[in-house]
Amino acid sequence: MTMIGWLQIILFCVIIVALAKPLGGYMTRVFNGERTFMSPVLRPIEAAIYWVSGVDERREQHWLTYTVAMLLFHVGGFLIIYGVMRLQAMLPFNPADQSAVAPDLSFNTAISFITNTNWQNYGGESTVSYLVQMLGLTHQNFLSAATGIALAVALIRGFSRASVRTVGNFWGDVTRTTLYVLLPICVVYTLFLVWQGIPQTLGAYVDATTLEGAKQTIAVGPVASQVAIKMLGTNGGGFFNANAAHPFENPTALSNFVQMLSIFLIGAAMTNVFGRMVGNQRQGWAILAVMGVLFIAGVAVTYWAEANGTSIMHALGLTGGNMEGKEVRFGIVASSLFAVITTAASCGAVNAMHDSFTALGGMIPLINMQLGEIIIGGVGAGLYGMLLFVVLAIFVAGLMVGRTPEYVGKKIEAREVKMAMLAILVLPLMYLGWTAVGVVYPAAVASMANAGPHGFTEVLYAFTSATGNNGSAFAGLTGNTFFYNLTLASAMFVGRFFMIVPAMAIAGSLAAKKSIPPSAGTFPTTGGLFVGLVVGVILIIGGLTFFPALALGPIVEHLAMNAGNVF
Amino acid sequence: MLREIRPAIVLLLVLTAITGLAYPLAMTAIAGTLFPAQAQGSLIERDGKVVGSALIGQEFKEDKYFHGRPSATLAPDPNDSTKTVSAPYNAANSGGSNLGPTSKALADRLKEDVDKLKAENPNAAVPVDLVTTSASGLDPDISPEAAQFQVPRVAKARNMPEQAVNQLVAANVQGRLFGVLGEPRVNVLALNLALDRASAK
After folding, report:
1. What residues of chain B lie within 8 A of the CB of A322, using their CB?
2. What ranges does the record give for the region Disordered, renumbered to this chain (chain B) (predicted)?
């Protein structure tokens, strides 16, 4: 670890915290339907969209209607992606003559993109056409991100409103998020990325003759426009197989730094939106502090482990850290930082191959996902995931002093705690359950690329990533098989919607409650004690659930590595 | 709830058209006008022929060129399309080795490559990036140490004084941005092109 490395990490944290408040202010205005500086341009477009689609954005929806609208929206998104992938050979924008994508792979990819996972069983440049990249993948990058944000806003309204039966209008929330938040940032961001060197063309792959006279076919495409939203919307599905490690997806140190910022940007600002909407920005800062503590701890471990290198490398006299699966322009620190960011948020883009990380360096991304991606988290999803843990922490605090727990003026009662527990328990059921199947079912075992405990970790990582809607991988695992296409799709589906529905039920039940003013007996939720309590609850629940699995994978591998074993 | 069906279809189609077609196509047009070179892939031409991209690494095996990092990219086996074969720096199928820290295959490969490099230049420590595969398999860069390590071989193959080659390396080192971001590096293709130009003089 070096001073200059830590300087990059600190610089990153400072900029994120500095951006949270102004963007949070702007987004709050957008979600409240107020005028913003973009309104003169965008309001006419917004109104036209409502008129064509028959939406009255002021008509408020019950939490159940809101949820059903969201689900219907996803059915359509699924059909578009599946259809475009199956038919790509007959459709335009296919200069590389990609043939139809297989049914199971199309199914997996469609589920993957509507759930904001963007797991890459498809090979990017070797599998799909430009039309699929744009119409199938880029569009759903926007809409699954906008959906996550809309749902978080609905849950916040549950806390901030009192004695009403509605939580907002899904169509209005999604349209406004897309038009006012995601698109304007992406337009500027895309141009920045092209300036840095990312291609943006509809032209065919380029054939070059190398200096030594060999032929090199260079894949290009409309890359920058997709990379912008894949980062900003914490989607993470790459244009290319190697994702953000590919020089055309992430050409420079500056593009890398800005991409890391853009992964956290909206998630961090959502904590400020929460604070503003419940009437006290310090509530938002307290949540950001919980996230910050867990984040810095993770960065420190991964950076230390990767800078340290592996026993194999030490034995050969190689110094300079574990560079297997990393790019020179990013080096150890920017690769480690990116890995922790992408799994803390539910992005899943990678600028280094996590499969080749050291055992402990790769364990942190795994833990980040197993905690439910609540450290900043996916756009929107991170906040509602974190609020579920807050509900539990408040409940635990209430038990300790024997009072009915309250949070931002709402009584937390049996229904909320049950729903929070349901959401938190269903996730480990998915990844631990499917991992158990994956390590005994012969057709699945054949997919492992590495032997020994590392192979087990590959399987555990795959199902954790799918359930957490992350999308990063220990990519040695051959995921494009019938077994993995279907099981991973089921994990992604359950991981997304069994989290959303309980969260929305909480939103509905909270919105209907009266708001009670704080009294002398109210547990303050803006201070260090609260931050410590939530961190503690997260680590205890996470630790109890996952420690046995981690012990079989990365922990035993670390011990084996130090003992000089190879597999 | 029936009245949610029309927006579910129409709004989806409208937003899909905006974000899936209008946005990428408009960005293609604007980016192509503002930054035409980058938008096409930062291609490098020599004598009117495309020799590669400034951002994409390519395979160098000859002694007279600086070598990039090992690459783990694959290509379909020409004899059996269900299998793949090693194809270093295949810029149409990026990817890494994905070998883990306790992989025997990785241990064997590292040992073989380290031994080879030690034989080539016994006077310097083997730089780690010269024996490890990159994440994309297309890494265009090596560390300055990895370039310096190869100077004796390249100078000998080209009959150039080592000092002249060292100067070329030094001129091609890119430092950290603002002194903070990223790592110092040397673009291998740019260095080799400079080398060819220097030899031609």
Report:
1. 101, 132
2. 67-100
